[in-house]
Every structure is written in C-alpha cells, then in structure tokens.
C-alpha cells in the first residue's frame, strides 16, 4: 500500500514542485492509506507503529515526494511522542483522533523564530503567551513551519508573561482567527512543503491547551541526543530521495545509446563504477538507519543517542553524495528542468539543513567520545549546554 501511495506522489510531485502549492491531493492519499496515524499508540486504538516502521514509511514516501513525506513525518512524530508519554489534554487528543479517522489532520511544531533562529542552539522564545480571563493569548512570529497552509494544529513554543516567566508549547488550532501565513517559502528544494513563516496575533486558546509548561532551564532545554525516534526516520526520508535519483540514473544508463558507442552507456566501465559507488553509499546508510531503528524498538541499551546522531550525519552525507555522483556523470541531462534527477538533486540539499545540524551533532558525539577516553584524573570535556538541544524543532 505504501509503495502504491508513493507511486501516486511521484506522479503529482513535478506539478507541486513547479507551483510550490500545498500538496492537497497527495496528503489525502497518505491519509486514505492510514499512514498519517500509523504511530498512534495502541492505548488509543492505533497500530502503534514505532521507529523502524516510521523510517520505512518515510523512506518510501520520500521516493515519491519528500515534501509530502516531511509533512507526514511531523504528524507521525507528534502521535509517536503521545504514545510513549501522554501529554496532550485527554479530551483534546481524543478529538484529534476522531477527526483523524475522517480526514487528514496535520500537526507540527512552530519553534524557529526570526531573531532566535533554531532553538537547537539554545535560547528563549520571543513568542509570548499572555494570561487572559479564559486562557492564553499567543503572539509572535515563527519561521519554517512545515505544512503551514494545511496544519490543523500549531504547537507553538512560547514564553509566558507571568512575573516568573515559564516556557511551554501552546496548542493553537490552525483555523484560529488572527493567524497570518506568509508565502515566504521559496526555496531550492522541498518546494511543496509549504514551510512558511507564521505570525500569531493575540490568538486566544483555552487555559488547558498547553503542554510542558515550566521554568526555563535545563529541564526545558531541548536534548538533541534524545531524538533517535525522529533522527532515524528523517534520515530514511532523504535516503528515499537518493533511491529515486538512483532509479533515474539506472533508467538513463540503459536508455542512452550514443551513436559513436552503439550500445547503452550502462555497459561502460565509467557508468558501472559510478553505479557501484552509489549503491555502496546508499546500502551502507540504510543499514545504519534501519539497523539503528530496529535496535531502538528492541530497547537495546547498547544503542546510544550518539549512534543515532552519527547515523543521520552519515546518511545525509551519503545521500547527498550519491545524488551528486549521478548528476555529475549525466552532465547537462542531469540538470535539465523537467528531469526528475534535477528535482531530486534540489530536494536532497535540504537533508543537512534540519536541526540539529551536522556541527551540533558532531559536538555531542565528540564530547561523549572524549569523556569516554579521558586519562585518569582528567576533567570532563566541557559541554556546550546550548548546543545539546531537542529534536522537537526538526522542521526545515
């Protein structure tokens, strides 16, 4: 079923890429296949898809249209978090599930800000939640909110206006008045992801529609090391893009017969060697990602957060390199507009952009590695607490 949905997404992807409009038909197809709710917990009557299943879903959807896969990823991650540790108000989450059975219900965090940038590097949100007689009034601007045009729920990270400010995530319905979505998303890749800027102007929500509210400090800082459940599926998504690029490369190699050669270029040593390098890159990355996901699901305590971060770093590198190799060998045909490879090349450039970026991941990995091999009596390596921050902000 997932592969059939991916095939439909692949048919629709070129037009959505050109128009940069919200991929309504594609999202509907993902919903009808039951993929938007694959991670709803068994306690809620869902199938309880875990990390490995999520990774496989996004890998397949990423082969069809990574913009749609990324929109899906954010909703899947929300349900997965709720399944592991319920934190939404019970009645509200029950309503979300009821509506999700009838139509696509999309959810995503809104965390990145114009001045702060990504909270993956620490800091306090400027977005303000003001106490009112009936609840909260939320005001502020967020950037790069994936799927903004189609979101049913914005999970807005904000600071309260209380005498002792607290920080939390405020659950704002997408249809609320005074939400302004600007069409500022005009990027090289993932053009249909609709990762626009969103401004909230005194948007009123009930008092109980907030999660994780507490004082700002270590407990409220994001922990990049704890995000295997999103690191690995996100890496799988972009490996799906690379696999689509590889498929086009193979098709081209078999179809291209230069007059001076007299047979397909697939028979030449140059193409066979490059095909081998691409396959080695992608197969190794997939082994890291899917193998790690299986270990996470099995509860294997030997699989560390740093290994998950490392798997994503290498998967991103391998995916980008594999597509680059295909484009370079094809030359002008590989960069022609209307050619799927050209779109795959643009889309996969977005892989390293997601928080935590490579430098932050390597910092966390290196800190752990140095602390694990320090000489007797040597002090622990300094930790940049602002750098070791959460994956809730994993939006482009």
Keywords:
396 residues, alpha+beta, Butyryl-Coa Dehydrogenase, subunit A, domain 1, Butyryl-CoA Dehydrogenase, subunit A, domain 2, Butyryl-CoA Dehydrogenase, subunit A, domain 3, 3 domains, disordered C terminus
Summarize the structure.
47% of the residues are buried. The chain has helices spanning 2-19, 24-32, 51-64, 66-84, 90-100, 228-255, 269-297, 305-330, 340-348, 358-372, and strands at 107-110, 128-131, 135-145, 153-160, 166-173, 179-182, 196-206, 210-215.
Question: Could you explain the architecture of this structure?
Answer:
The chain is an alpha+beta fold and about 400 residues long. It has three domains: about 1-105, Butyryl-Coa Dehydrogenase, subunit A, domain 1 (Orthogonal Bundle); about 110-215, Butyryl-CoA Dehydrogenase, subunit A, domain 2; about 225-370, Butyryl-CoA Dehydrogenase, subunit A, domain 3. Helices cover about 45% and strands about 15% of the residues. It contains ten helices and eight strands. Strands 1, 2, 3, 4, 5, 6, 7 and 8 form an eight-stranded mixed sheet that branches. A hairpin with a 5-residue loop joins β4 and β5. The chain is globular and about 80 Å long.
List strands and helices in order, with pairings.
Blueprint: H1 2-19, H2 24-32, H3 51-64, H4 66-84, H5 90-100, E1 107-110, E2 128-131, E3 135-145, E4 153-160, E5 166-173, E6 179-182, E7 196-206, E8 210-215, H6 228-255, H7 269-297, H8 305-330, H9 340-348, H10 358-372
Parallel strand pairs: 1-4, 2-4
Antiparallel strand pairs: 2-3, 3-7, 4-5, 5-8, 6-7
Helix pairs in contact: 1-2, 1-3, 3-4, 3-6, 3-7, 4-6, 6-7, 6-8, 6-9, 7-8, 8-9, 8-10
